[in-house]
Amino acid sequence: MATDFEFRKQVLDMHMSGVIKYCYQCNRCTDNCPVAEVTDNAYNPRQNILNALLGFKDAIFSAEKIAIWGCTICDTCDEVCPQNIELTEIFKLLKNHSVANGDAPDFYYLQAKTIFENAKAIPSQPAIERRREQLGLPAVAAPDVNELSTLLKNMGIDKKLKGE
Amino acid sequence: MAEYKMFEGCLIGNRIPFIEASCRKIFDKLGIATSQAPFSCCPDPTGFANFDNDGWLAIGARNLALAESEGKDIISLCNGCSNTLKLVNHTLKHDNLKKDKINKELSKIGKEYKGTIDVKHFVSVLKGELEKIKNSTVKPLSGLKVACHPGCHYMRPSEVMETDDPMHPIDLKEIVAACGATVVDYGEETLCCGSSVSNAYEDHGMAILKKKMDAVKKAGADCLVVNCPACFQQFDGKQRDLSKKFEEEFKIPIFYISELIALGMGIPADELGTKFHRTRVSDILEKIG
Ligand code: SF4
Ligand code: SF4
Ligand code: SF4
Ligand code: SF4
Q1: Which CATH fold topology does B4-122 show?
Q2: CATH 3.40.50.11810 fits B130-288, yes or no
Q3: pLDDT in single tens digits along all 164 residues of chain A
Q4: Which residues does residue B148 pair with via DSSP β-bridges, in sequence order?
Q5: How far apart are CA A2 and CA A74, in angstroms?
Q6: How many whole angstroms from A19 Cα to the centroid of ligand 2?
Q7: Where are the domains of chain B?
Q8: Distance, CA B100 to ligand 3 centroid (Å)?
Q9: Are the C-beta atoms of residues B189 and B231 closer than 8 Å to each other?
Q10: Among all residues of chain A, which has the CA nearest to that of B59?
């Protein structure tokens, strides 16, 4: 297994506190992970951390999608890790790479496209606008779609959308 | 009390607005003042953050900048939104390189993030008003057995959310008790609802949901109370499918905490839009009269 040093640096830079923390593979994250439990460890956070810290890029991105995308982002692992590793921050980096590779599950591309086009993951719709009125609610303050899509375009994020 | 900028979020605002109705009604009774702003999607901490972290930071920072320009804190009705806005605020306050990078992008659209406001989940605000809630409860929900699901992102990651104990949360329980109801422990309070894994792997989300609902059922709760619209949709919308899939009946009524408080305050159910729930809540409404 080859170490990708650039990738490894990105992983180590991910810690918000800036301190490198070492995983000693105690498995507490996986023991407390609800998805590991229901998938018989087909999704395994400990394994992801090991591969990420070693810079084993190929092992991570050539595996089945669920190896990265099985996470339900409950942040339990972050709380139980005795080394205070911000696991979900590292997993986010892995997912960002997977998206850029074009390998993420469809949902993520679809949601991003909806946000790009409507400035909301769930756009307003006439039936709900009427219901808001019936409930005595004010109309939702409309977001500036143009400004938001300009922001994302300037950052080159529109290029990651599929079907563009 | 100072006025907050209301961040109802796109799921509540544009899909299940009856939750906003009960929130606004109890805010009025408790003297919590709010005003609107043209916020965009927060954006979704379990969706868009995984798509592009810097884009997520930039959109979040833009939302924060909108509230900052009025010098007001944000009150959020949704775990996801408060998770994103707090995480973005925290990251940019602690990472100057990122902050400069994001502000460079924001300056091109005439915005700037300064880091001058706070974001509060409405449950944290209510937790500071327990006495007022007790005093405004004219119809105590006595005898109602309530299981609590505060949801992962109300309190985790704890270093950033700074609300409740991350693995033994109590805020929601205390509010339920303030309404005169009885809190029922079921042992899986901190288990996720399984909503976000369902976006790609529906079966695994259902397996987690099953574990959760089994525990709630076994504990003999009359209903399950939540404070996140994504949790609400998972529990309220998917129990029917769960029953089919596992050939066992699941029909626990689901309430938003604001609805229970409102009912205790004597606000009529039809003003709250409880008829828009998927699970049957009429028995509960009868029970509390
Ligand atoms: S809990 Fe922390 S130290 Fe233990 S295996 Fe998981 S990441 Fe490594
Ligand atoms: S955040 Fe993901 S990896 Fe961590 S415990 Fe939850 S589902 Fe498992
Ligand atoms: S967290 Fe969910 S509900 Fe809240 S704004 Fe984001 S996408 Fe919408
Ligand atoms: S329980 Fe589910 S929807 Fe609720 S906060 Fe956790 S992941 Fe989000």
Answers
A1: Glutathione S-transferase Yfyf (Class Pi); Chain A, domain 2 (1.20.1050)
A2: yes
A3: 789 999 998 888 876 555 567 899 999 999 999 999 999 999 999 999 999 999 999 999 999 999 999 999 999 999 999 999 999 999 999 999 999 999 999 999 999 999 999 999 999 999 999 999 999 999 999 999 999 999 999 999 999 998 64
A4: B225
A5: 31
A6: 22
A7: 4-122, 130-288
A8: 25
A9: no
A10: A148
